[in-house]
Amino acid sequence: MKRVNSLLVVFFCLFIGPFAKAQVTTEPAVPNASQSVKLIYDASKGTTGLKDCNCDVYIHIGAVTEGPQSNTWSIVPFSWGTADPKAKMTKVDGESNLYTYELVPNDFFDNPNGLTIYRLGLVFRNADGSKEGKTSSNEDFFVDLAQGFTVNITNPSTSQVSLEVGESFDFKAETSATADISFELDGVEVEKAESVNSLTYQLTANEAGTFTLTAKATAGGETDSESITISVFAPSEKEELPSGARLGINYISDTEVILALQAPGKRIAHVIGDFNDWKILPAYQMKRTPDGEIFWLKISGLTPKQEYIFQYLIDISIRIGDPYADKVSDPFHDQEIIEQGRYPGLKPYPSGKTEFQATYLQTAQEPYNWKNISYTKVDPEELVIYELLVRDFDDRRTYKAVLDRLDYLEELGVNAIQLMPIGEFEGNLSWGYNPSFFFAPDKFYGTKNDLKQLIDEAHGRGIMVILDMVLNHAFGQSPFVRLYNDGDYGAPTEDNPWFNRVAKHPFNVGYDFNHESEYTASFVDSVNNYWLSEYKFDGFRFDLSKGFTQVNSGNDVGVWSQYDPSRIKIWKRIYDRIKSHHPDAYVILEHLSANDEEKELADYGLLFWGNMNFDFREMAKGENKDFSWAYFGNRGWKNPNLVAYQESHDEERVMWETLNFGKTSPINLRQLENAINRNQLLTAFYFGIPGPKMIWQFGEFGYDEELNNDRLGIKPTRWNYLNDPQRERLFKLYQEMIRLKKDHEVFNNPEKTTLNLSGSVKSIILEHPDLDVVMHGNFGIGNVGNVPVAFPNPGTWYNYFTGEELQVSGSSVNFSFRPSEFYLFTSEPLPRPEPGILQEDYVTYIPGEELPIGDFKVYPNPTTGRLNVQFPEGMRAANYRIIDMSGRLMLSGQQSQIQNNLEFDLGNFKNGIYIFEAFDNRRVLHQRFIKK
């Protein structure tokens, strides 16, 4: 059998693979599927779940039959979590953590179809499976099996090596049976031995060049070989980075750049790209700083304004783009962008010349001409943030499409937009929480100047723009991951300066940054300053900020959420660094940790997401919840730095809960009109709690698509909902509550806040020298009569939505409420909103018009004594009542089955404004009328 594996490039002698060999070894070193093999497991290495366990250790083993590179276990003989004596390993005498297991793979597995067993998959456990041993990256072990006689070059274990001139390296070949073994270097025999199982050859690299080393072995007439290519380079020239140059792309002139890459511990770096036809040339071998930290190279002769795609080639094996570049060339997804015309003039990826992600450089770029550079940022407590995903906010899915919707956002009244992550992420259609390049806007949404124009135009309208920043983790395409990791897209190795090999906390995705590393700290500061400076973002919402810790909580959410002094120190440092350059930047954390930790950081100045979605979803269904945790004062914070929210991108929609799971009796919340009333109630009280606010896109008109039917998938926009008068009522209610918050300090930072949010009738009282506000609402789903509701002082109060006056003589007034009804009173008269917001404004009669079948009519209006009511078809046998503006019941009854017209004598009613209500189990109709 002849086997040649000729590899083009390889690492020097810092290997990626030996960790697995140290945790699981075999005898013989090259095991054969048809011969006995002893597996030796060291429980003190890897995830160490079984280290010093003083327990029986069992093997969980599987045969891999789909191919030599597959990780799929096809045949699994043992069940997990059972004390199967056949799976029990043998403990090595005198060793607390060494265990062995012997088998002949081809005989061991039940394999009636005679499938080839290419590999063994392994995990180790105690009897019940509560403890386990895996690789240090928390993955399965795999042992490759020879098929017949085989020789393998086992050192280097990855079959990859590169050397500098003068460096030596010991190569080792091992066989699956005793054999005659030799090494040949470019066809010349340099080492041999007879009747052995292994052979070592030391090579000293005396000259630069490319050489082929071949191990050959013969046993019993069978022959096998394996070859690798050794690349030898002259040592990197050592020279300090030129003054003023930073990591990344430094534009020196219209024809020159300095490229600088931080890669401690690496030996050789080349620049390859359009400017040298992607060839590995001595003139493009990068210099190295004396401390070994940074590779750099000055490139001259570039054409002004021309785009060049390029990469770094590290140790002749790792191809990466510049991690600080602002534009990425992607081999997998750029063609789609080109075909859809989403990015004018985008160059195709240089297929056939390289692989993996590359990046762009371009001298003499035209700077963006900012127009709106003088604008005033609102105080944090005044923020009304509109969170949006560029992908799903408009069907065009571009920055320009969001810009075209700024009129809408301005009409709604928000003063800040929070963009979900727009940094270059893996794929084209994503939420953006899978970042790879942290300085590049994703091209699927448009150009970087499209993004700048969006921000510029928003600033011109007084709308701040906040960026959702993802710095807890990066994904496998990140250059910082790929510089030190397993294989092409595997887990970071232990020597990675930026990342943990295994995440320190639950809910991690991608690869976890080590925020105690000086490399990560410097990188984070660079990222933050870049977006605030280059794009003029007004601040950040930091994703998964609780993950910025090296305290290892594993999968224990409780431990992870506890007070963490080291995490507090990390966040204070980041915050101080941001504020030192951008003192008015907003810093918002998605922390969701213990209150004592959040309080300390909030009092320091940071803002926090406050997830109230569960409570609001429950109330949306008709349940009663106390949501006073949405108020910063109830958390003991001294600053109003809590961005409480009903909805965010992570949770199900409140309106979806109402329409699908709302209670149906005594009032049916699943009917749209009643659902709108319910969500108006929630929204009014939500805005009544002082502090910054956030709306998740389309919540303002009751978006009701389920999140988790395709959690990360594209969701329809539903802009047509604004054509529905019912949903428009909700939108208008949002407008009014935002207007009140923007115009009156009492909604942002009152001198006194009184919350009564535990009962079914809830109240908020806000007191401020300029204006007092009282809100009362019925969170039950039945009518409530004669309930005393408090006012902070007697006098005249003004119903904001009707303009009507209420005389309060004591400390409370008795009110009656229909389901989801609420009142908002102010101590001073304010301009009345346009009608058409509340339900009683929605069902109206225009005098002189013929009444269509199905309409509701209360007439004459005004009346001097007689009142006629016509009920719509389908609402016979409805209940009715008349109440005054204080909610006092004046008259009630039930309409008969056959009669849909009633007449009332109101001669004994005082002059004033009254409400006629008609209601059944499906809907409630209201009509105001005046008695003269």
TrEMBL record:
Instruction: Give a yes or no for keyword Transit peptide in this entry.
Output: no
Cellular component terms per the entry's GO annotation = cytoplasm
Task: Choose any GO biological process term that the UniProt entry carries and state it.
Answer: carbohydrate metabolic process
Keywords for the protein's UniProt record, in alphabetical order: Carbohydrate metabolism, Signal
Instruction: Look up the signal peptide feature and give its range.
Output: 1-22
SUPFAM superfamilies per the record?
(Trans)glycosidases (SSF51445), E set domains (SSF81296)
Please give one Gene Ontology molecular function term for this protein.
1,4-alpha-glucan branching enzyme activity
UniProt xrefs under Pfam families: Alpha-amylase, Por_Secre_tail
Domain Glycosyl hydrolase family 13 catalytic intervals: 387-741
| Record-linked Gene3D superfamilies | Glycosidases (3.20.20.80), Immunoglobulins (2.60.40.10)
> Which NCBIfam families does the record associate with it?
Por_Secre_tail
What name does UniProt use for this protein? Answer: T9SS type A sorting domain-containing protein
